[in-house]
Amino acid sequence: MSEAFESPAASRRTVLCGAAAVLAAGGAVAVTGCASSGSGSSSSGSGSAGSAKGGLKDPVVVGPAADIPVGGGKVFREQKVVVTQPSPGTYEAFSAVCTHAGCVVDKVENQLIKCPCHGSTFNATTGARVEGPAPTGLPQYQAEVQGTDIKVSPRSSS
Ligand code: FES
């Protein structure tokens, strides 16, 4: 009598996808893809997530170059960037996120970038770790003067 259930596989897939869609519409996002036919395609994540470790992704103008003292530096907390000026007219920029536990460094003193959390210090010219529990130095960015401001960009390593 009923020959409507001819292709159980196809109709089962349709039902599952439909259920997933209903779940998704209901707010429970648990869909894993009932897109096109066959062969499971699970994306392996070579996308646009970009720079490793959540660092700076796009160039940012942090502020006036005149705010960066010679022989010192300034932390831009909002941008999580620290800019130093080891010698007049030479600017260096680093991630302000400590490589130990992720605190934002808070000052530059005596040619050292200092983390307030556990005392790690970094060389203000190179970003290299000097002491403390930080396992590595601070990732370095590119700093350049743009007009009267400092522009900081991710390093393009190619
Ligand atoms: S987070 Fe900077 S020293 Fe621990």
Task: Give the topology, please.
Elements: H1 8-25, E1 60-64, E2 73-76, E3 81-87, E4 90-95, E5 107-109, E6 112-114, E7 121-123, E8 129-131, E9 140-146, E10 149-153
Antiparallel strand pairs: 1-10, 2-3, 3-4, 4-9, 5-6, 6-7, 7-8, 9-10
The chain binds FE2/S2 (inorganic) cluster.
FE2/S2 (inorganic) cluster (FES) binds next to loops.
Structural description of this entry:
The protein is mainly β and 158 residues long. It has a domain at 57-153: Rieske [2Fe-2S] iron-sulphur domain (Rieske Iron-sulfur Protein, 3-layer Sandwich). It is 11% helix and 29% strand. The longest helix has 18 residues, at 8-25. The model is unreliable at 1-52 (pLDDT under 50). The structure holds FE2/S2 (inorganic) cluster. The site of FE2/S2 (inorganic) cluster (FES) has 12 residues, from loops.
Strand content: 25-35%
Helix content: 10-25%
What is the CATH H-level superfamily of the domain at 57-153?
A: Rieske [2Fe-2S] iron-sulphur domain
Using only C-alpha atoms, the radius of gyration works out to 26 Å
* Secondary-structure arrangement, i.e. CATH architecture of the domain at 57-153: 3-layer Sandwich
The counted number of beta strands is: 10
Bound molecules: FE2/S2 (inorganic) cluster
Number of DSSP helical runs:
1
What is the N-to-C succession of helices and strands? HEEEEEEEEEE
CATH class of the domain at 57-153 equals Mainly Beta
Q: How far do the termini sit from each other?
A: 68 Å
Strand order of the largest sheet: 1-10-9-4-3-2
CATH topology of the domain at 57-153: Rieske Iron-sulfur Protein
Taken from the alpha-carbon principal axes, the silhouette is: globular
